[in-house]
Fold each of these.
Amino acid sequence: MRKPITDLIHHPYVPPAKFAAPQPGVFKASTVFFADVAAMRARDWKTKAGYTYGLHGTPTTFTLEERLCALEGGTECLLAPSGLAAIALVAFAFLKTGDEVLIPDNAYGPNKALCSGELANFGITHRLYDAMNPADLAAKLSDRTKLVWVEAAGSVTMEFPDLPALVGACRARGVITALDNTWGAGLAFAPFDFNGTGQGADISVQALTKYPSGGGDVLMGSVITRDERLHRALKLSHMRMGFGIGIGDVETLLRSLPSIALRYHAHDRSARELATWLDGRAEIAQVLHPALEGSPGHANWLRLCGASDMAAGLFSVVFDARYSAEQVDRFCDGLKLFRLGYSWGGPISLVVPYDIGLMRDPGIARWPHKGTLVRFSVGLEDVDDLRADLEQALAAL
Ligand SMILES: Cc1ncc(COP(=O)(O)O)c(C=O)c1O
């Protein structure tokens, strides 16, 4: 007779199958059981045909991966513990000693730091290129170039590049392109099919931390492709580096993903309204929002995103040079609804002042502004309240 403590663990009860509810079931596992040794030996961890170990996928992670593929128009997806980890996964899957990676000067900063840190330590070089000048990228492609990053819009300064031209230059040389698609989120444009041409990036990375999560409470990244060969290489690196993610976070993502388009649209509408309003203010020298005329790359945004008429809820402003950096800091401190904090895509509006002089390489493209830049991530608050908050902080200047 078995003792109750054993039956507590090896309990015979199996709930009836075919439970249906709005949210999919949540399966938490490191260990996965096999029916017998033959099944254990036959199992191929590289496919979604079954389960091997928690790190290689569960019904819950597979479900999120498939839904993200649907969003971005890809066929294969891998999840990583953060957006930056997803970026690192791409680098480690495709670069080895002696290779070179090209990265836009206005790329997400920590991607550049990864290049000058770990990748340099492994003997992988990187070069920055001017995202707004496809000829600069084309001139820097060499036999050593094995990966090119593209990003639209550029981080913080929001320039919208000619993505089809950048990707086209790489394709002509057979170089893999990886798009940081966090801004577009699979909604503003199709990352694998620019304007219905069937041409797009080879790999799309998203920080799911932003719009797919939408809560400011989850860190996760995705790496999506349409190319089985690229996916295989990524899957091998993913396994070897042991990138696991908390299933509770996957559950949160599955809960928020269905509302992503509504939220993205709401962030976009409020951001455009505030950006347009700030454009008319004497305190502001330049508004940087790709959907606004006069913003760098607006024509590129129009060509790629005109059909969706979508943009993320992010924009930056450059203050008139008569305001010192300290005054602009005080403006940020004076905001009451906009909170000081990194990241974007959550319900609460955020603000960060940046010193662009420290972030851009003067040898790539000259930053034309003298005033201090402030980046806003517009949340889901009422837009009139947000405008009033900006107005009172501007008045205090
Ligand atoms: C454009 C972009 N890509 C990637 C990331 C990295 O995402 P995570 O914070 O999940 O590492 C961020 C985060 O701010 C980002 O802005």
Note: Residues 37-258 form a domain with the Aspartate Aminotransferase; domain 2 fold (CATH 3.40.640.10).
Amino acid sequence: MAPQLETSPPHLHGAAAGDAGRPACADWTIDQDWQRYTPQQHATWRTLFQRQSALLPGRACDAFVAGMQALPIGAEQIPDFEQLSEVLMRHTGWQVVAVPGLVPDEVFFDHLAHRRFPAGQFIRSPQQLDYLEEPDVFHDVFGHVPMLMNPVIADFVQAYGLGGLRARQLCVLPQLARVYWYTVEFGLVREHGGLRIYGSGIASSYAESVFALDDASPNRIGFQLERVMRTRYRIDDFQESYFVLDRLEDLLALAKIDFGPLYAQIAGKPEYEPGELVAGDTVLTRGTGSYHARRRRG
Ligand SMILES: [Fe+2]
């Protein structure tokens, strides 16, 4: 399948969920029903967990590693959201709540604004270890929850939820969603003299954990807010560009920013393609683009 660009709404967690999937609760939460996971489902978790745990040392940032170590997340079984929430609550005031899959934008943002992370209750099938259309418990828990133990990310993700509710009213959600995409989902950070992963979309993917750091194809560009807000992204393939923070603490300033004037500032300005380099970029790696060129030909 040819790579696709973001759609509207472009949010990984916020793609419109049909009424058929609507649970009884207005906030779309469901019982995790941990007891009902089968041995096969725990085995799928174990396979994914062991594979990523072997790959990530030296690749994941320190905050991810510290968060993972402090949480009740292990190889043997799918984590219990109540146990995760107990630890999270003590550290950063966050909770994990179960949802059936994708939820509407306003529901997703409202959860984040109240420091509740909506996590997919289901786990992918053994035939889909490397590809899934909706975020499942492995992506959401292994990828996101360790970073929510970090105070900076904890504040930033809550601010994104508050900002999302406002951006939706202003009809500028695609521009804000790109900030989340290129940070929380696919962000890299300078650390220990190199680049490390903090984005959950990378950290929960074996192939992208390698591609994002080691492959010659993608661009790696210093993070600039306006630039990111004008840059489209891929939803069904590796990213063509990754944006790099100098330090995670830079997100603190972003959590406090008033996006209102920024929306006005970028209104009507051209948007950038995912693989494009533009004047003013701090280019850490000029990508060859070879991977996506092959995909386009194929
Ligand atoms: Fe995610």
Note: The chain has 13 helices and seven strands.
